[in-house]
Amino acid sequence: MDSRLVADVLSELHDNLPAIFRRLPVKRLAQYDRLQSLLHVTDVSQDATYQRDFADFYKLRGSQAFRQSYFNLLNSEKTGNDMRFERVLGAIFERCGQVHASFSSKLIATVNANFPVYDIEVLTRLRLPTYAGGSVVARLQRAADRYKAIHRFHDLAKHEPLFSVLVTEFNSGFPTYVHFTGTKKLDLLLWQSNRTGA
Asked: How far apart, in whole angstroms, are the C-alpha atoms of residue 120 and residue 49?
């Protein structure tokens, strides 16, 4: 991930902001805000409404046993400060035997909204490969490498002048949600950018 690519991606987002904003569903912003505000005031391992909202927002799939294990982990992690991606990815793998890179990142980003989300839309926009096959060891390593690249993109983006412009435009377009972190605002723009034909 180099600074030229970061600048190009931010420029693409800026050039397509009207289309991105039209596609950003306000009800999803409200849903995300609700999930974040309730995280520390409810037991997410027991709160069925929270679990349904989370599963809907983040497209959490899998068996009931997997979901329960996931929300147990989220509830135990929400007061922790060790949000290393590899550790959370490994903890989820130990519970279900599957490599859930996206869901691992979403758990981390829920606990700390300054961390980015690993998502196929983000991978596509950042020109990162989306191949998901191979051995377990290869998939775990590839997930960790991609997440580092996404993290680096966010770190570099925050030093680009266009980042502040994008945040200002987001705040103007969605004033109810100015309190979202800069990382989440950029995540949301990346999430919608591939749906605009940009």
From this structure: 26
